[in-house]
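Justification of computing resources. Each target in the renewal requires a structure prediction run like the one illustrated here; the chain below, 441 residues long, is used simply to show the kind of job we budget for.
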Amino acid sequence: MHPPRQHDLKPMVFSKRGLVLGATAVVLTTVAVTGAGIHLSKSEAFFSESPKELVDEVWQIINRQYVDATFNQVDWRSIRTEYLDRSYSDPEQAYEAIREMLGKLEDPYTRFMDPKEFQNMQIDTSGELTGVGIQIAKDEESDRLIVVSPIEESPAFEAGILAKDIITKIDGLDTLGMEVNEAVQLIRGERGTQVTLTIQRGIEEIDYPITRDKIEIHPVRSRVEESGLGPVGYIRLNQFNANASRDMRKAIQEMERERVVGYVLDLRSNPGGLLNASIDIARMWLEEGTIVSTVDRQGEQDRKQAQNRALTDKPLVVMVDGGSASASEILSGALQDNKRAVLVGTKTFGKGLVQSVRPLSDGSGLAVTIAKYLTPSGRDINKEGITPDVIHEMSEEERKQLQGNITNLGTLQDPQFSKAIEVLGRTIADGGAFPVEAIAQ
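Resulting structure tokens:
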């Protein structure tokens, strides 16, 4: 099965520190511009009255930055000649040509956004959002839209939408062949209005009427869970946004004061986010060792290391699943390869590419794949994902029950958390050593 084509309408920051790893489409409505590094002044660009200038602007960015120096075995210089020889009577024709040109790269993560799409993508990472709260992707094999994961406590989550659901209709409109951007336009809307998603799950097809609403995204939630082992620190990280590092540090420090015996870090359904956030958080758990390497088109590696500033050395279990993507895979891969944590759950999503997002001269935007990342052991997990040390599936009934009662998440009523506690107990019994017997399961 081919991997889903995904579009990232997640929070993005346009600076080197804000390289984006997230690979999912957050179907939201409210638009707010993040402050760090965004400059959309037309005076700083060379866009003139001719839409043709925009086509060349996009071509130039790809020519300089794209990760694949062969451009998918395409003669990129002849592509420039072909598209600049055309006449464009309005911006829409140029937009269509740009999308066609980028399609030759066959890279779903390198994509053009018209001004409206680009504005909608610039979502304030710390504010309230309005919409249904799902992350969607395009599945190549079925040519359908697939749910990567619903955002916790969002209307989609509360309606019962699950990761890997197939969206077959939006308000009765068949989605076969529909692109993600088109779906986003159909699904988003004003607070209080309703959209009906027809979901295929196995052989069932179900209509889910969902009322759009404000969505609060809390990147970190934590608490101390009493268990037979003693107090265990449970930390759930929902996404790697601009606040994730700060909130994670605070959670670990508070739990250290509570004298927990170990930690369970929950990255399930975390679709990713900012590269820098994943590195910062890895350093809170790792005293030494490599965290991640990024490899650009010249093959140059930028290797990020731990800095001897770990906040704790207590035993750690990390929970992952098919909705854990990009930045989640960097963090879990770093902890697994350095034998700092045991991974429990199911295989992760498999997205190992880094995008830079560029504002263009007319207010549109371009996401460009500029690098791939490798885990410390050199694993390229793109399309493959990370396999947990302890694979523990949940039945659909267990998933529904858990999703229907979010208060059970990260408690002993959560089957994967129960397995994580079991594995943590073995780790503690072994004096904090990485339990070899866990890997054998």
